[in-house]
Recover the amino acids of this structure.
């Protein structure tokens, strides 16, 4: 591992740790909110009351948005604190079903066996997974011009029929494609597998790398590498531009072998999220993101959910996510019950 790679990975981990630390309080134990808190109607708390910690873990896809919501919610509910940890959708689901945390962040649909154990999902926003490649790839401009289809993605990540850049681009190039995938159980992996014609993350092949930041860094360090990432780890939150060292693999939506002007919406995050909201970008790899409790949420968490689905939606676009449609918001509010 190069010094630069180690330094950049350390930066990602430090950034995540700082976000968690800003939302957490060290005085409570995991599960402290489960069935034990009853804040005042409307989710507000008195400044002098007891502080309650809500423990959260799970999908990297939802981590940045959840950090924003936690910070803003605490401004109007100063007695509620959040301890937020990444680790992947699979870890979040395991944690919440084992009562290790109060809420899981999940970037895929819940499975029947999880619901049988009490998983209670509430949709909160929309995100997407995008294919990525190295910005210094020698075939950069050809790939940006032609893009890929789900069939080509399947041939790269699932069947292994496409192994060289020449096979992908229809040239005589013999350089190999270095394929990367996620090693941790992730909604991003499942969504990319479904886009590629598979069913589960396990259908994907390639060099396995842990976590969203790790996968982005692996591709950033390999000129012949391809991978996939959630939007939040592909685009710069402040500028909306693609993160340095990465490029997004465009999707040839009509299958004509080229990226037409109406398919070219990847250089700016806002253009991409607009295409996702308009359902031009395909579902999957776009998908809703969920907060999940074991069983129905207690009243403290219900109040937080109600805020997320109402006032909290105002923070979604600036964080690089897509608002839920109004009909979906109303369904979610009915699911958790009006106050």
């Amino acid at each position: 591992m190069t010094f630069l790679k180690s330094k950049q990975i350390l930066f990602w981990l430090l950034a995540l740790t700082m976000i968690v630390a800003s939302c957490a309080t060290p005085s409570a134990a995991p599960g402290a909110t489960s069935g034990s808190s009853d804040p005042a109607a409307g989710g507000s708390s008195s400044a002098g009351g007891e502080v309650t910690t809500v423990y959260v873990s799970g999908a990297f896809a939802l981590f940045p948005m959840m950090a924003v919501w936690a910070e803003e919610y605490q401004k109007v509910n100063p007695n509620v604190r959040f301890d937020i940890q990444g680790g992947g959708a699979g870890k979040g689901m395991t944690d919440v079903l084992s009562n290790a945390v109060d809420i899981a962040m999940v970037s895929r649909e819940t499975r029947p066996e999880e619901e049988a154990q009490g998983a209670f999902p509430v949709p909160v926003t929309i995100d997407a997974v995008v294919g990525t490649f190295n910005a210094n790839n020698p075939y950069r401009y050809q790939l940006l011009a032609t893009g890929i289809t789900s069939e080509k993605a399947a041939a790269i990540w699932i069947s292994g029929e496409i192994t060289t850049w020449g096979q992908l681009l229809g040239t005589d190039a013999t350089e190999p494609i270095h394929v990367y995938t996620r090693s941790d159980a992730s909604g991003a992996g499942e969504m990319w597998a479904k886009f590629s014609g598979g069913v589960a993350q396990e259908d994907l092949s390639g060099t396995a790398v842990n976590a969203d930041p790790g996968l982005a860094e692996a591709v950033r360090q390999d000129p012949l590498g391809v991978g996939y990432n959630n939007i939040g780890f592909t685009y710069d939150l402040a500028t909306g531009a693609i993160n340095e060292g990465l490029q997004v693999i465009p999707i040839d939506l009509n299958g004509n072998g080229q990226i037409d002007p109406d398919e070219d919406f990847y250089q700016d995050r806002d253009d991409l999220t607009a295409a996702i909201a308009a359902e031009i970008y395909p579902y999957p790899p776009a998908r809703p993101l969920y907060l999940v409790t074991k069983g129905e949420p207690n009243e403290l968490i219900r109040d937080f959910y109600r805020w997320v689905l109402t006032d909290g939606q105002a923070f979604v676009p600036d964080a690089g996510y897509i608002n839920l449609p109004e009909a979906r918001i109303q369904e979610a509010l009915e699911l958790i019950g009006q106050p």
In short: The radius of gyration is 20 Å. The chain has two domains: 16-127+289-336, 128-277. The chain has a mean pLDDT of 88.
